[in-house]
Amino acid sequence: MFMKIFRYIFLLLFLCRRSLEHSVLKRSIDLIAAHSLVVDSRLPREIAPNSYTIDLHPFPEEGYFKGNVKINLTWHEPMDKITLHVHEDLIIDHSELKVTQYVPDDEKLRSLSAPYEPVEIKVKRSEVIPKQPLYIIHLEKQLKTGTQCVVDMTYSGKLYNDTSEGLFRSHYINTLTGEKQWFVASQLRPNLARKVFPCFDEPAFKANFVVSIVRCNTMKSLSNMPLSKSEELRPNSKWVRDYFEESPPMSTFTFGVLVSDFVSVSVNKTNEDNSGPKINIWATPDFINAVQNTTEKIYTSVRALEKLWDFKFPLPKLDCVALPNYQGTRPADNWGLIFFKESELSGKGSWLITHELVYQWLGALATPFWWSDAHINNALARYVTSYITLQVSDGKETFHNWPMTMLYSIYYEFSKRYPHGKVMAIKQDSSSTKTELLFRMLNYTLGEKTFNSGLQRFMADRQYRTFFGDDVWSSITEQARIDGTLDESITANEIAGSWISKDRLPVLNVIRSSDGTTATITQRVYLRERPHDVPEQEKFLWWIPIVLITQDKLNFSNSFPVKWMKREREVSLSDLPKKDTFIIVNPEEIGPFPVNYDATNWNLLAQFLQSDNRNKIPVNTRAKLLHDAWNLAYAGDLSFSTALDMTLFLKYEREYLAWDPVFTMIDHIGRHIDGSGVHKKFLMYVRMLLTPLYEELGIEAQEGESEGKANLRSSSKVFLCQAGYKPCIEEAQHAFDKWMKAENPDEGNPVANQYICPVFKWGSKEEWEFGLERVINFPPGRKPSERTYLLKTLAGCPIDSWKIEKILNITILEQNGNFTDNDIYLVFSMLTGSSSGYTTLFNYLTKNWNGLKKAFENKPQLWNSLITSSTSVFKTQEGLDMVTKLYKNKQHDFGTADFVITKAIKNIKEEAKWSNDNLPVIENWLQKYLNLEKNVTASEENKFL
């Protein structure tokens, strides 16, 4: 139960930490959902836009806008129709539609210098294509190659009020006047420009924009370019039209608009040559003070990015806006006009702000030709963001512990028998993460100067244009050739291709000779889940850089490979130190792959890490060695005795980055140990590991302490609290007592989430039943998520079987009307996290078989969920025997769940084999460790319930 609770709380923390990461990863043109846009309605290539002249007149209070667009077009092939993207919500005034030819279609006439009189081209008809965002204008004649025309269209549309998409409106309350203040803004990525004006809504169709906006005279308007002039629509009118300077060529998704009464603060700095954009931060009058300190972060990041790209900010100005009530999951990174949530722009860190600024170059200035290349854009933007953030913060801002958190998550994902399952978004995310790490690998192995110069070469070549994914790798290869940092037989394109084309990662196995002076290195697919029966895995080969560190030369600044594995199964190394000296391959996690060694080398590493010289190995490499050892052991490639030896240095370790993989690994191993006889010994070991650390860190945060120290304290506390650490339980019960004594406890929950699970696990019967009453009596006016969390902890936290049985009786057999089918799904799911949970559920199923069958006779999905949750999570031979016996006794009575239990039995056999192979090894190691530490063990155990 302990491991289940820890896993649940740990995952909550992990997801919270990853939530920022994911929120900043899915941006603009490189949405993780970009795969769905590959089949978007494509426009013919015969005609392309040169420019848009757009006039918009929003009516915020009324909720609609009027618009006019003039699109200057060039014919690249003969064509008698014009096809545009138009959203179904856009209403075209067909009577005002006009097509005027400004350049003759006769090549001889075009060669003459004489002026050409514009000619109106008759429109035969126009049509909206059903169920597609397409609008086709049929002309009376076919126009030839080289013709230029202007399409003039008047239209109207709605200001979206429930979503921050297209052209939308929202409001805030002015605290001085109490009045509602409307504002209008736009969010057009990835293909929402068609909601605002008829256009060629694809990234490859870049064009110049000339924009004018009509606004109330008490408001201001912003667009991508600086304001040129303003004029009243007519004398004494409240309406003013603002005209903006013409933009450089840009894609439709980067077009932006804001009409508001916001105020601004400027960044009063210029570059040494007085160049650079004019930077303003905008917010409501009440919020402007909260973003005052953001100006320095924006200026610093812009300057760092200009230096990286060797290209000045592409536009003369940059406006960053804190939008109240902004509902977008990501900032709207229009070119020169970025919309943030208020909390995003006023936050402490600079990662998210820098990430949006990266897109001003990569995405707006240089743009992927089509969505199929979006993952390259996404990965490179993430890499550049992390690189710049570390640079401008001097390494103080750890954000998501780049790259360790990403590495560990993709190792887990790509090592599955079936990576991603059927979830395309997960595949897109993990693939982009892997590509981001490839950029990092090339930065190390080619050298920072060469790699950055390659990026500069790419940007110089693709500015104001579009690119394909291969263009990035080609630019890096060209620069590496010039600098002599890449062998003529190798290209970055080939290297990247071997990684991007596979939903897998390699593992290297390094076996040294008896005297240690030579080594054989082999590569194969890295697999954790059993059985390792991935089809054709022997064909999987990667281009892998072999970066080597030896104990006698601990120079971690040298990251150039001693050799490349050029899609070779095996290579050899020579001139290594003698056998009593360790080696490290892939230090600092230069490439995204684990490395296994022979037992002698692992033992040398474990001994060195326990010595006073351990800090000569940087923390990223210490974390990598620990992570690799545990994962290789979990996969069956390394003895758990060796992997556990690698944890012994943790009693001296105080860096959060080294501890970060420990919590994940304990969780993974705990899933197998939970419910076995080894479990209690493992818990004692973990408590002994964490208690001194937590007590040394102190209960309260210290002024000016690092983010890593705060995270380490938090993670340690969560784990210890769920393990029954007395001070933590007492603190949780004290907080919970205030809720129990509240006059009306159903009005709200005053208890922090971190305290609820420990109380439901270690607290009294009265405390747990109080929580149950709060779920049953939950008021409809409160947030449903609060009830969901409470129900999760009520079901998932208790270790007492009577609590679990009671909640099952209430929700299923008693059919309490306060619980829905979704609640029952949730309860089942929570019970799969621990042996006490799923064992109690299994026993409950066998004891109440007939009643449960009747309760779910018309709900096959719930029945299947029950069978899955109660039978598929066992890990031992004892569990296999229990499930097999049930299947034999009820073989013809499982109905739709028959396939569920047969699959469960097959999986449990694999898990039981793992347990039979590894639990004796783990138990022997733990017993030996606890015998050596028996005096410490007794004192530490007294601190736990």
UniProtKB/TrEMBL annotation:
It is found in: Cell membrane. Keywords: Aminopeptidase, Glycoprotein, GPI-anchor, Hydrolase, Lipoprotein, Membrane, Metal-binding, Metalloprotease, Protease, Signal, Zinc. Residues 582-909 form the ERAP1-like C-terminal domain. Zn(2+) binds at residue 355. The keyword Protease applies. Its main location: membrane. The active site is at 356 (proton acceptor). It comes from Pyrocoelia pectoralis. Its EC number is 3.4.11.-. Residues 1-21 form the signal peptide. GO terms for biological process: proteolysis. It is a lipid-anchor; GPI-anchor. Residues 300-480 form the Peptidase M1 membrane alanine aminopeptidase domain. This is Aminopeptidase. Belongs to the peptidase M1 family. Binds 1 zinc ion per subunit. It comes from the Eukaryota. GO terms for cellular component: cytoplasm; extracellular space; plasma membrane; side of membrane. InterPro entries: Aminopeptidase_N-like_N (IPR045357), Aminopeptidase_N-like_N_sf (IPR042097), ERAP1-like_C_dom (IPR024571), M1_APN-typ (IPR034016), Peptidase_M1 (IPR001930), Peptidase_M1_aminopeptidases (IPR050344), Peptidase_M1_dom (IPR014782), Peptidase_M4/M1_CTD_sf (IPR027268). Residues 49-253 form the Aminopeptidase N-like N-terminal domain. The keyword Lipoprotein applies. Its cofactor is Zn(2+). GO terms for molecular function: aminopeptidase activity; metallopeptidase activity; zinc ion binding. Coiled coil: none annotated. Pfam families: ERAP1_C, Peptidase_M1, Peptidase_M1_N. It is an enzyme of class 3 (hydrolase).
